[in-house]
Amino acid sequence: MTGSDGREYWFQVIKTPQFDVKGNTIGLVGIARDITGCKRAEEKLRMSEQKLDVMLQSIGDHMSMMDKDYNIVWANAIAKDIFGDDIIGKKCYRVYHGKNEPCDGGNCLTIKTFRDGKVHEHDTQVIDRNGKIIHFHCTANVALKDKDGIPTAVIEISRDITERKQAVEALRVNEEKFRSFVDTASDFMYILDKDGNLTDVNKAMIKVLGYSREELIGINITRLLSKRILANDFKSNWKKFIKDGKLNLDTVFATKDGKEIFGELKAIAIYDDNGKYAGSRAIFYDLTERMKGENALHKSEKFSKKLIESMADGFAILDEKGVHIDVNPALCKMTGFSKDELIGVRPPHPYWPEEEFENIQKAFGKTIRGEFNDFELFFKKKNGERFPVIVSPSQIKDAKGNVISNFATVKDITDRKEVEEERERLYRQLKESQAKLVQSEKLRTIGLMAAGIVHELNNPMMGMLNFTQYCLKHTDKDDRRYTVLKDTEQTIWRCINIVKNMLTLAYGYSDEEFHTGSLTNILDVALRLLEFRIYANNVSVSRKIAIDTPKIPMKTGKIQQLFLNIIDNAIYALDDGKKREMRIEIFPNGEFVEIAISDTGNGIAPGNLDKVFDPFFTTKPVGQGTGLGLSICQNIINEHNGNIVVESEIDKGTTFIITLPIRLQQEAK
Amino acid sequence: MSKNILVIDDDEAVRKSFILALEDTAYRVETASTGEEGLEKVNADGYSLIFLDLKIPGIDGVETMSRIRKIDKEVKIYIITAFYAEFLDGLNKAVESGLEFEIMQKPLDSEQILSITKGILDGPAKY
Questions:
Q1: Degrees, nearest 5: CA angle B98-B99-B104
Q2: Which residue in chain B has the smallest CA separation from A526?
Q3: At the N or C end, where does chain B have fewer CB atoms within 10 A?
C-alpha cells in the first residue's frame, strides 16, 4: 500500500468476516502487519499470495478483480457460483450487467476507482448466471498499482442484498398500504412525543380539525382539546395514562373554528428502553353525530328524571291496573306515605279517602279509555287529614298505540282553595261594606232630612192618637164605628213607630260635638225616658255604678241614644222572659269605662249573634223595628273609638258590653 | 193634694190630647202654649202636676222648669218630649243640679196620660 509519504509499504493482511445473527455477512475485520521492512523471499511472497487467495476464496461475499480493460482477472468462489465458473478473462460489464459496452463511468465503481484510486461503494443490480436480477451492495478499491502508483487492478467486493432490498420494498409497500389505511380512516390517529406534541397525524384529523398538517405537527395535543375538557379532568387522566400505559376516555376536541368534536379516545403509551415514557399513539373515534342524538336523549332523560324529582306537584307512574310503578318525593310529602308504602301498591291507594273511591275509579276508568280530563277531588293524608287536589292524568303510547305507561300529576290545591275562599270572603265583605256604606250614607241623608219633619209629626200624632182614643171611649163597642176607630188607633200607632224609627235614624247619623259628661246622668235620663215602659213591662232594673267612674268625653246625645236603644232592646227581650230582670253596670277598667247591660230574656240565637249589628237585621215583627238600632249603636261606639260586644245564651239572657275610652284618643269621625 | 194639672205645650193637638184624656175625671186641666204663659199660671194658681214640653217658643222647657222650681218646689213636673238632642245637655244639667222632674217620651196616649196622672196624684200604686 502507498503511505501518506508516497512510499510503498508492504503489509501482511488478515481479514475475518463478521456475521449477523441470521448468518449474513455484515463485514470484515482486517489485521494488517507491516512487512515492508522484511526482506522476504520470493517464495515467501508466493506463499503469501497463495494464503491470501485461500483467504479471499473463503470469504462469503462476492469478490472479483478487474484490470484496466475491465477483464475479470480474478474472482472468488462465490463470484463463480453466481456468475459462472468461466468468468475469468471475460469483460466485467458483460458478465455482471449483460452489456456489450463498458458501463457509464458515472455509475461504475470500477471505473471510478481506476480514475481516482479511492474506495467507492454503491447499490447496484447485477444479472446472475441464470438471468435473475440480484441486488448488490458493492465496494470497489484499488487492488494493484504500477510503479507510478497508477491502479492496474480494482477489486470489487459485493454483498447480495436482494433479500434486504425486498424486505425494504415490502416494508415500503406495507407502509404505503398502512398509510393509505390510516389516511382513509374517518377517525383521528396521531402520535405524540413524550411532551404531548404531535409528531404525526392522519388526514381525518387534518380534515376534521381544519388545521394543515404543518400546523398540527409539533403542536401540543392539549391545544386541540375542548377547553371544557381541559378544565375538567384531562390532567388527572394524563397522569393516569402515563402510569397505566393506556387510556380509554370520552373526550372532546375543538376544531380550528371552535366546533366541538365528541368522541372516544384510545391511546397507548410508548416507553423507551429504560421504561421511561416516550410518547403515545392514539385513535380518536369521532362520535359527534351519534352523540348529538344520544346526548340529547340522555340529557332529556336525565332532565325529565330530575324535573319529576324536583316537581312541587306529586307525580305517579302507574301500570294499566293502576299499580304504582314510581312516585316522586312530592307525592310522598303531600300524602305522608313513604315511597315504599306506595310503590307496587294496587288500588285503592292508601291516599284515597273512602268517600272518593267512586270518583277516583270513574276518573281512572276514563283515563284508561284515553280521556285526559283534570279532575278535582280530595286525597287523604296518612294522618287521615283530607286535602283538595287536582289530578291530571296522561299516557304514553308506542307507535302501535299500546299504552306504555300512565302518569298522573297531583296538585295540592289546599292553598288555592283557601285563597279562593279568602278572596270570596273578602269580596263578600267588600260588597257588604260597600252596601253598608251606601246604605248608611242614604240613611244619614234621610235621617238628617227627616229629623226636622219627624219632630213636627210627633205632636200631631199624639193629637190623633188621643182624639181617636177619646172617640173610642165614647163609642159603644157594638157600634160599627168602634171597630173603625180601633183600626184608626192601630194605624196611628204604626205611624208613631215609623216616626220613632226615623228619629232613631236622625240621631244616629246626626253630627255632634264631644263634651265631657257623666255616663251616670245619661243613663239616668235614659231610664227615666223609658220608665213608663219599664214599669208597664214589669221589669226590675238594678244599677251598679262604680263611685270612681270618671266623666268621659262623648257625644252626649249619641250615648243617650245608645243607652235608649240597648235598654229598649232589653225590655223587648224580656217581654217573653220568665224572669224580667235587667242589670246595668258601669265601672272603670284601665283606660276605659265599661258598661255592661244584661237582661234575663230569651237570648239571641247563635246564628244571629254576629248579625245583630248589621243594619236592617231584626227579629221584631214588621213595623215594630227598623233593624237599625244596634247598627246605629255600633256606629256611635265607633265614633267614640270604643268597642261593643254581645254575649248571649238562649233562655238565659243577653249581655252587651260597651267599652269607651276615658281619654279622647283622636279626633273621631 | 189638689187635682189641678197644667199642660205647657205649644201644640194645640197635644194640649187637647191631655184635655180629652182627662175629661170626665176628677182632675182639672189647664193649658199654656209658652213657658212664660205657663209661669204666669203657676204664679197665679197652684198645681199638683205640670206636663212640660221641652221645645216651646220663648224660654225653653228646661229653663221654664228651673223657674217653676223657684216658685214651687213641690209640684211634680213631667217633661214630655220627643227627645231632642239639643235639649239633652240642658236635661243633663237639670239632673246634675238636682232638679226634681220626670220625663216621658212623646207621643203619649190617653191611657198613659191617665196612668201617669193617677200615679202622681193618687199615689204610686199603679200607672
A1: 120
A2: B103
A3: N
CATH, domain range A185-292: 3.30.450.20
| Residue A3, all three cell numbers | 503511505
Interior angle at CA A531, CA A530 and CA A532, nearest 5: 95
Which CATH number does B4-122 carry?
3.40.50.2300
Which chain A residue has its CA at the smallest distance from B107's CA?
A462
List of E strands, A381-463 = 386-397, 403-412
Chain A: residues touching B (Cβ < 8 Å):
455, 458-467, 469-470, 473, 496, 503, 507, 510, 512, 515, 517-518, 521-522, 524-525, 528-532, 535-536, 556-557, 560, 564
Residue A131, helix vs strand vs coil: coil
Measured between CA atoms, how close is A475 to chain B, in angstroms?
14
ipTM: 0.88
Give the model confidence (pLDDT) of A178-210 as tens digits.
Answer: 777 777 777 888 888 888 899 988 888 888 888
Pick the CATH number of A11-162 from 3.30.450.20, 2.40.10.480, 3.40.50.300, 3.30.870.10: 3.30.450.20
* Amino acid symbol at A49: E
A138-193 tens-digit pLDDT: 888 888 888 888 888 888 888 888 888 788 888 888 888 877 777 777 788 888 88
> From 3.40.50.1390, 2.40.420.20, 3.30.565.10, 2.60.40.420, which CATH number describes the A512-661 domain?
3.30.565.10
Cα of B44 to nearest chain A Cα, Å: 27
DSSP A478-499: TSHHHHHHHHHHHHHHHHHHHH
Could you tell me if B102 lies within 8 Å of chain A, comparing CB atoms?
yes
Residue-wise pLDDT tens digits, B58-84: 898 888 999 999 998 889 998 888 766
Q: Inspect the interface and report whether the beta carbons of A518 and B92 lie closer than 8 Å.
A: yes
At A661, the pLDDT band (50, 70, 90 cuts) reads very high
Helix (H, G, I), strand (E, B) or coil at A660: strand
Q: Which sequence spans correspond to the domains of chain A?
A: 11-162, 185-292, 317-412, 512-661
Q: Does pTM surpass 0.80?
A: no
Q: What CATH number should be reported for the domain whose range is A317-412? A: 3.30.450.20
Determine the residue of chain A that is closest to B105 in CA distance.
A529
Per-residue pLDDT, averaged over A580-604, amounts to 91
Chain B residues in contact with A536 by the CB 8 A cut-off are 127
- Residue B57 forms contact with A (CB below 8 Å): no
- Which chain A residue has the Cα nearest residue B110? A466
The answer to whether B99 and B105 are in contact (CB under 8 A) is no
